[in-house]
Automatic annotation (TrEMBL):
Belongs to the glycosyl hydrolase 10 (cellulase F) family. The lineage of its organism: Eukaryota, Viridiplantae, Streptophyta, Embryophyta, Tracheophyta. One of its GO terms (biological process) is polysaccharide catabolic process. This is GH10 domain-containing protein. Residues 1-20 form the signal peptide. Keywords: Carbohydrate metabolism, Hydrolase, Polysaccharide degradation, Repeat, Signal.
Length: 573
């Protein structure tokens, strides 16, 4: 996404919401999930009064014109809001929210007819609307609404459920609202990192005869990390060795900021392609073992097309697009790990409007023919970062992905889920972010945070840290790219250095986390010759030095391949 466009978008859409720690199983056979097995309220309902509606409608009241009643079906009690007249007719429970907490919300929702988006919203006393999440509810089965909010004030608030269609009744059950302090949330992230990003490793050090050796000094050095942490890259890297050193000493993955976009590659006029710059950047990346996510073949925003394109009639746009995809995808075929094939095709529809509603599906199909190895991503903003955006929320993302996948010939394309992750410098709604990542991640496609950044503001670095930790601790996240760079690339939204490539506050957060997510230390074996530890997934070199002879043994270890029951035997001669 381009910086200017992004600023405009984010200024109009501020972020708030949250999400839960308990896991659950979804059935994604359709485009929305429906209840397979009934579920109890998470956290026994948390601070919600009468979460299972076993005490009539106690704790709940109708808002506006509707009426509420408890209903019993198959032995289960739930709440029904009926006789609605206006779309805003709803029901509420008043809760007390505390400042600086995260609230995970979950609820089972059903509607009386058809399919309808239902959102959960908190209205605070001072009139703030905190959007907690949206689900596409169906009739005939229960759908899970999962999300949450973050708070910046202590206030009473009304939790209510909203659906735009007044002709349907809303049913709800097993509503849960669980508060977490920031410290609790953080400790849960740390526990998840330990579990999903590290392996326990046990070394037993002996001498040649098999005698266990105590006090052996072991130096553990990480050679490679298995978690893709990357950063955007601009053409400025081609002319600055400082930029080159800054980048290659930190990152092994990249996305070019603008240099692979159509408006860059065919800027001067139709047919006048120029790949000099992206070719040179690809060559630089290759020399430095940096893997590239291709960004992007097309961008569905009408404002981000090559200038000459938009004046053409649809038929010519079709021909020019066919040439574009063939040109860029075959040029870099086999050299990129991924392509964002049609960027932002949930918020925009330039190609669908010009070429028909299957345009994106056809482009994914063609891209796969031209480059069979690249993972083909959808790439959207606001899916996890803005609970108010009704266009690209996780359920709509899933729907779009399924539509593209259902196009004949697309079944076996290696799709990927790209979540841009552009946050404002406000307390991030990590509960909502987590709910979205858990939902989309559980589909089984590779999922990356593709353009992580935080807009300028007093808490920019802190917010970035919270977001990166949330992403890294999520078991479904397969990689993260920070969409920023050194000072020379501009600091309008976010940058990571001063003019001399010294890390600024944001850069220091990134440096700190890269260091934290790496295992490098020295230790000694215990009296039984053991050294038990846990190491981040990656490749390591271990050096064990005999305490008296100084004889040393060097070994390579692949930590992600270590079996938890395995004991690694190290013989020091
Ligand atoms: C709510 O939880 C109860 C168990 O506490 C369960 O019997 C019921 O089916 C659940 N309702 C839904 C809609 O999952
Ligand atoms: C409201 O829902 C009903 C029942 O599903 C449906 O027939 C109707 O078209 C919907 N109206 C709107 C405006 O979506
Ligand atoms: C809380 O956040 C809202 C929305 O960003 C803002 O309008 C409000 O001023 C903030 N309140 C406090 C006390 O920071
Ligand atoms: C292609 O782009 C490069 C780098 O900007 C420029 O030096 C070169 O003149 C361009 N070639 C043509 C034919 O425009
Ligand atoms: C790139 O990786 C290969 C294989 O892992 C290694 O042999 C080579 O030294 C690396 N090159 C650089 C510049 O890091
Ligand atoms: C989209 O593709 C489907 C499946 O091939 C086809 O049935 C449908 O007619 C296409 N729609 C348009 C508008 O081309
Ligand atoms: C280290 O691991 C070994 C092998 O499983 C075990 O016997 C030993 O008790 C462990 N030591 C510690 C301190 O946990
Ligand atoms: C082992 O190394 C230590 C520190 O470098 C040194 O003081 C000691 O003399 C060495 N011992 C042998 C047997 O080489």
């Amino acid at each position: 996404m381009e910086v200017v466009t992004l600023l405009l978008l984010l200024c109009s859409l501020l972020c708030t919401a949250g999400h839960a720690i308990e896991a659950l199983s979804y059935d994604y056979s359709g485009t929305t999930k429906c209840l397979v097995e009934p579920e109890k309220p998470h956290y026994k309902g948390g601070i919600i009064v009468n979460p299972e509606f076993n005490n009539g409608v106690k704790g709940w009241e109708a808002l506006g014109q509707g009426a509420i009643k408890q209903q019993l079906s198959n032995g289960n009690r739930f709440l029904v809001l009926h006789s609605r007249i206006h779309p805003l007719d709803s029901f509420r429970q008043r809760v007390n929210l505390e400042k600086d907490k995260l609230y995970a919300l979950s609820a089972w929702v059903q509607i009386s007819k058809g399919n309808q988006a239902v959102s959960a919203i908190f209205k605070t006393k001072d009139g703030q609307l905190l959007h907690a999440g949206t689900v596409i509810a169906k009739s005939g089965c229960w759908s899970m609404l999962k999300g949450g909010i973050s708070t910046n004030t202590t206030s009473q608030a009304d939790l209510y459920f909203e659906t735009g269609n007044a002709t349907v009744d809303i049913w709800v059950d097993n509503i849960s609202l669980q508060p977490f302090s920031k410290a609790q949330w953080r400790s849960h992230q740390d526990a998840r990192i330990e579990k999903v990003r590290k392996n326990k490793v046990r070394f037993e050090v002996t001498d040649v005869d098999g005698t266990k050796l105590a006090g052996v000094r072991v130096v553990i050095k990480q050679i490679r990390s298995d978690f893709p942490s990357g950063c955007a890259m601009s053409k400025n890297i081609l002319t600055s060795t400082d930029y080159q050193n800054w980048f290659s000493s930190r990152f092994k993955y990249t996305t070019f900021a603008n240099e692979m976009k159509w408006y860059s590659n065919e800027a001067r006029g139709r047919g006048q392609e120029n790949y000099t710059i992206p070719d040179a950047m690809v060559a630089f990346a290759k020399q430095n073992n940096i893997s590239i996510r291709g960004h992007n073949v097309f961008w569905d925003n009408p404002k981000t097309q090559p200038k000459w394109l938009t004046t053409l009639p649809p038929e010519e746009i079709g021909k020019a697009s066919a040439r574009r995809i063939d040109s860029v995808v075959s040029r870099y075929s086999g050299q990129l790990i991924a392509w964002d094939v049609v960027n932002e095709n949930m918020h925009f529809s330039f190609f669908e409007d010009m070429l028909g509603k299957n345009a994106s599906a056809i482009f994914y199909n063609r891209a796969h023919q031209l480059d069979a190895t690249a993972t083909l991503f959808l790439n959207e903003y606001n899916t996890i970062e803005n609970s108010k955006d009704k266009t690209a929320h996780p359920e709509n993302y899933l729907k779009k992905l399924k539509e593209i996948q259902a196009y004949p010939g697309n079944e076996n394309i290696p799709f990927g889920i790209g979540l841009q992750t552009h946050f404002p410098a406000l307390p991030p709604n990590l509960a909502y972010m987590r709910a979205g990542m858990d939902m989309l991640g559980s589909l089984g496609f590779p999922m990356w945070l593709t353009e992580v950044d935080v807009n300028t503001g007093p808490n920019q670095a802190t917010v970035l840290e919270e977001i990166l930790r949330e992403g890294y601790s999520n078991p479904y996240v397969d990689g993260m790219i920070i969409f920023s760079g050194p000072y020379i690339d501009g600091c309008g939204r976010m940058c990571m250095t001063d003019p001399n490539y010294k890390s600024n506050e944001v850069g220091e957060v990134v440096d700190k986390l890269l260091k934290e997510w790496k295992s490098e230390f020295e230790a000694t074996t215990d009296i039984h010759g053991y050294l038990n530890t846990s190491l981040f997934h990656g490749g390591y070199e271990l050096t064990a030095t005999h305490p008296t002879t100084n004889a040393s043994k060097i070994m390579s270890i692949e930590v992600s391949k270590v079996n938890p029951d395995e004991i690694i035997h190290v013989k020091v001669t």
